[in-house]
Structures are given as structure tokens and as C-alpha cells.
Specification:
By secondary structure, this protein is α+β, with helices and mostly antiparallel strands. It contains two helices and six strands, in the order E-H-E-E-E-E-H-E.
């Protein structure tokens, strides 16, 4: 069984939800993760807040960021065990982040020194 990372992408990082909406989304997200964990398929995960973030360019220039005005921001990720990419995609389809217009989930297999790129 392979491991896959499910990356939560937010279309508009400039939109700020109310505290009540954030609490509701967090509850929905915890319930979603709980459903995956109940199948013994959850490995790990975390949210990625914007405070104290930095971006390092290829020229080694460091700037504050990421910025909410960019097209897309990464809000967090979880790692799951799945028998196939299709099973991992099914987990991703249940993520509450998809309630936001334009939001997406990226599903990527984690390399395990198996020579597959």
C-alpha cells in the first residue's frame, strides 16, 4: 500500500472567513480526517498558517510570504495510505476545502526510493 499526500489548495487566499465559519470548517475537516482514520488509512497531516512564513527564491532572496493576493495558496495537507491513486482521490473528494469556489485538492504519491518518478 502506498502513501499519498492530499494538498489543500485555496483559490483566493485574500478571503478571510469569520471565526464562526473557521470553527465550522475545522469541525468538518476533523470529521473528514476521522473518517479516514477509522479505516486505518490516515498517516499524518497539518494546516499551514500564513504567519511567520518566508519564500526563498532560486537566487536565495528571502521575502515575507506567501501572500494572500497570489492566485492560489496551500492551506494544509494530510498523508493517507491507499491501495491506488484512485482510492486517494476518493478521500480527497470528501475534503471540506472543496466547498470553497475554485479550491482544489492535489493528490500525489509519496516516493519511497522505489525508482518510480
Amino acid at each position: 500500500m502506498d502513501e499519498y499526500v492530499l494538498i489543500m489548495r485555496h483559490e483566493d487566499g485574500a478571503k478571510v472567513a469569520s471565526a464562526e465559519q473557521m470553527q465550522e470548517w475545522m469541525k468538518q475537516t476533523m470529521d473528514w480526517i476521522g473518517g479516514i482514520a477509522a479505516q486505518n488509512k490516515f498517516v499524518s497531516g497539518t494546516g499551514l498558517p500564513f504567519d511567520n512564513a518566508r519564500v526563498v527564491s532560486s537566487k536565495k532572496v528571502v521575502t515575507n510570504g506567501p501572500f494572500g493576493d497570489i492566485k492560489e495558496t496551500i492551506g494544509g495537507f494530510i498523508t493517507v495510505r491507499a491501495a491506488s491513486v484512485e482510492e486517494a482521490v476518493e478521500f480527497a473528494k470528501g475534503c471540506p476545502v472543496l466547498q470553497g469556489e475554485g479550491n482544489t485538492m492535489e493528490v500525489r504519491r509519496i516516493a519511497k526510493n522505489d525508482g518510480v518518478h
